[in-house]
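User: I'm writing a short report section on ligand binding and want a predicted complex to refer to. Could you take this sequence and FE2/S2 (inorganic) cluster and write out the structure as tokens? A short remark afterwards would be nice.
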Amino acid sequence: MNIYNSKQYKILDVIKQTGDNTLLRIKCDLNPMPGQFVNVSIPGIGEAPISSASYNDKLLDLNVRIVGNVTKAMTQLKKGDEIGLRGPYGNGFPMKELKGKDLVLVGGGCGVAPLRGIIEYVDLHWKDYKDVYMFFGYRTPGDILFKDEISGWNDKYKVFLSVDQEVGANPFNCPVGFVTDNLKENKVPSNAVALMCGPPIMMTKTTEILKEKGLTEKQLYVSLERHMKCCTGKCGHCMVHGQYVCLDGPVFTYDEVKNLDE
Ligand SMILES: Cc1cc2nc3c(=O)[nH]c(=O)nc-3n(C[C@H](O)[C@H](O)[C@H](O)COP(=O)(O)OP(=O)(O)OC[C@H]3O[C@@H](n4cnc5c(N)ncnc54)[C@H](O)[C@@H]3O)c2cc1C
Ligand code: FES
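Assistant: Sure. The structure tokens for the complex follow:
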């Protein structure tokens, strides 16, 4: 069997999240761990790695932000269409090692999607973890992802949303400022672990703030994005400092990647 062949899966739903983010719900038993990803193929157009935004053995949610041809074609798929997937790939967040800890999730924009996999995992394994803090930042209230789930998250977890600019209605009364401002102003336990996904500048500033709050670099996990082709550690496209982001990552502790130029 060719490991680069993808298998076809049925799309159960296509849910528009925001102007440029669409969630594809796929009937799928691949069940990636939080932080793992699949490689999506669109015949005649190409392939793109997309993170799992869920933790479920019957469904897979992919949150797609349109940046180019593959992601645009993905968002044009309809309920009932099929989509080619291979994977899951990558290490994911080390959920089993983190048992017994407080978790601080920090996400920016579509970087929140892979963190939703952690939330769904903790929903099922809540006895294994202490408190979950969520610091999610978006450009405007209209860019907030998973709006229908926020009140349910509020019931169980400590949710801190923020928006860079207050444009239009602000139904969640989010403070205006960067996600890092919100993090700075709120307490998190110094023995927590932080799991982050978002723009590199957000992750750099987040690590500075969390270090000021007493967390060490080994308590900080970041999810990296690189251009990928094979996703199996063969082509070298994704390599940084001798490590394959597709195989050794995409999740690294901050002390493993702190010297990257970004
Ligand atoms: C592990 C991993 C998980 C990902 N998860 C998601 C996800 O959940 N949802 C999602 O929408 N996207 C995700 N991405 C990003 C997505 O795979 C890329 O944006 C992909 O290239 C889109 O393909 P395209 O053909 O639509 O655009 P392309 O034609 O490939 O890219 C369009 C533009 O974006 C730039 N670009 C593309 N990828 C990157 C990158 N990795 N770093 C910097 N610039 C880039 C290109 O240079 C180009 O200018 C993930 C990427 C990785 C590596
Ligand atoms: S994408 Fe080919 S080695 Fe990582």
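A remark for your report: The two ends are 38 Å apart (CA to CA). Helices lie at 69-75, 112-124, 150-156, 179-185, 200-212, 254-257.
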